[in-house]
Amino acid sequence: MKFSQIQTLQEIASIINCEYVGDADFLVSGMNEIHVVEPGDIVFVDHPKYYDKALNSAATIILINKNVDCPQGKALLISDDPFRDFNILTKHFKPFQSSNVAISASAKIGEGTIIQPNSFVGNNVIIGKNCLIHSNVSIYDHTIIGDNVIIHAGTILGADAFYYKKRPDGFDQLVSGGRVVIENNVGIGALCTIDKGVTGDTTIGEGTKIDNQVHVGHDTVIGKKCLIASQTGIAGCVIIEDEVTLWGQVGVTSGITIGSKAVFLAQAGVTKSHPGNKVYNGNPAQESREFLKQLANLKKIPEIQNQLK
């Protein structure tokens, strides 16, 4: 998430009322999660296990809960609760804006686009040309939709990320300040849910087709011309490359990569990254030929037992 105006380290520290290490005029241009940070970004870290990863990341401002040695060319924000303060910054730079109309006045809608009754289009949404938005679709603030996109009834674009920190008295949610980006010629079925990024974009690539009742988690990037069948669930921060096929009820864990042209058969459980150009089956998913061999061997167990009697 980039700020609308460049900030200084001192200005950021004053917002969250914390100490800092570095030049007061050190420039801060945005804030992001560890997997998408760039120079000028703030990243937060609140566990010693991840200190080195954060300090050595592309981020140049580290919001951290310990006064450590500051890497050259970077700055530190010292906080007793980086998770809390990251949320404060998100709310400050991207506050929630309520709406009392079905289609926000700040939304930009392209020529030839049809929006059916009872749909909601939030603030600063951009919808391209010749789209068809069916009834009861909810498009949250800052969503971007390309040309020739079809979205069926009941689908929700831009709900909050499922991202929580466990506290002694319950769970604190990490505030979502990202977006959903739908590229050209995408088709999205009925009752789908696509969560926005925490600070970045959840992206559906050009030409991809999504069936009914599919969930896509925060910050996931789906490539071009993918096919995703009904009741598939994709967790956050997944990368799905071009022309991947996920058949019905496939489950995909967070933070993995699926190579281009991979095919996962129905109810496959994708628990790790897999290369492309192969067919997978089972839970945990494995190459389909190996999976079928194992099933065939299992069927031989009664015969083997009888031979041993």
The strands making up the biggest β-sheet line up spatially as 8-11-14-19-22-25-28-31-33-34
CATH H-level superfamily title of the largest domain = Hexapeptide repeat proteins
Mean pLDDT: 96
**What's the domain count?**
2
Give the CATH class of the largest domain: Mainly Beta
In what range is the share of β-strand residues? 25-35%
Would you tell me which CATH topology of the largest domain applies?
UDP N-Acetylglucosamine Acyltransferase, domain 1
Give the overall form: globular
- SS element count, helices: 5
The CATH architecture term of the largest domain is 3 Solenoid
Low-confidence stretches: none
Gap from first CA to last CA: 68 Å
Please, could you describe this protein's structure?
This protein has 309 residues and is of the alpha/beta class. It folds into two domains: 2-93, MurE/MurF, N-terminal domain (Udp-n-acetylmuramoylalanyl-d-glutamate--2,6- Diaminopimelate Ligase, Chain: A, domain 1, 3-Layer(aba) Sandwich); 108-292, Hexapeptide repeat proteins (UDP N-Acetylglucosamine Acyltransferase, domain 1, 3 Solenoid). It contains five helices and 34 strands. It has helices spanning 9-16, 51-55, 82-93, 288-299, 301-308, and strands at 2-8, 19-21, 27-31, 41-45, 61-64, 75-78, 108-109, 114-115, 120-121, 126-127, 132-133, 138-139, 144-145, 150-151, 156-159, 164-167, 170-173, 179-182, 187-188, 193-195, 201-204, 209-210, 215-216, 221-222, 227-228, 233-234, 239-240, 245-246, 251-252, 257-258, 263-264, 269-270, 279-281, 286-287. The strands form five sheets. It has a ten-stranded mixed β-sheet. It has an eight-stranded parallel β-sheet with strand order 7-10-13-18-21-24-27-30, with no helix packed on it. An eight-stranded parallel β-sheet has the order 9-12-15-20-23-26-29-32, with no helix packed on it. Strand 16 (164-167) and strand 17 (170-173) form a beta hairpin. It is globular and about 80 Å long.
